[in-house]
Amino acid sequence: MELKEFTKKVDDVLIRHKSILDITSKLHETDGKINRAIAKAVTECGCIKINAFKQDMPENINYSDLSKYMKNHIEGRLCHTCEEKIVEEIGDHMFYIAALCNNLELSTDEILKKKYNEIETLGKFSLF
Ligand SMILES: [Zn+2]
User: What GO molecular function terms would the record report (predicted)?
Assistant: First the structure.
């Protein structure tokens, strides 16, 4: 499925939360639910652990080699249940991203193309 098709479908089905205020607040809510699902994978299920510490990298390293030394601080793998929950929450978030774009008459495809080109141009030097 293409993003354009997904965005169109969101526009077709979004009736109840059509207001920009509903959409932006739902976006905030779905962002929190993703965060919560990750936290529950750690604290309730235990399928993953977070072992966070200062990113330690050798001195005089090339910027392009930096990613080899950067850690994600995740130990383990998501179990099926936690993965399903996180996928569901990310899907809900994407739904409201598409709804926001529709509401503001912005093209999700154009946004992705623009970002892709930015990443392509800046490569590993792109910082967010
Ligand atoms: Zn789990």
Answer: hydrolase activity
Predicted local distance difference test score (pLDDT) of residue 87: 98
Question: Higher confidence at residue 41 or residue 66?
Answer: 41
Residues 6+ away with beta carbon under 8 Å from 124? 63, 64, 66, 67
Lowest mean pLDDT among 7-21, 93-107, 113-127: 113-127
Q: In the chain, pLDDT over 70 holds for what percent of residues?
A: 96
- Give the residue-averaged pLDDT of 82-102: 97
Q: Which of 88, 117, 38, 118 has its CA nearest to residue 126?
A: 118
Q: The domain 3-125: what is its CATH number?
A: 1.10.287.1080
Report how far ligand 1's centroid is from the alpha carbon of 50 (Å).
13
- Side-chain-side CA neighbours of residue 55 (13 Å): 8
CA of 100 to the centre of ligand 1 (A): 31
Q: Compute, in angstroms, the gap from residue 73 CA to the centroid of ligand 1.
A: 16
Distance (Å) from CA 15 to ligand 1 centroid? 34
Report how far ligand 1's centroid is from the alpha carbon of 117 (Å).
36
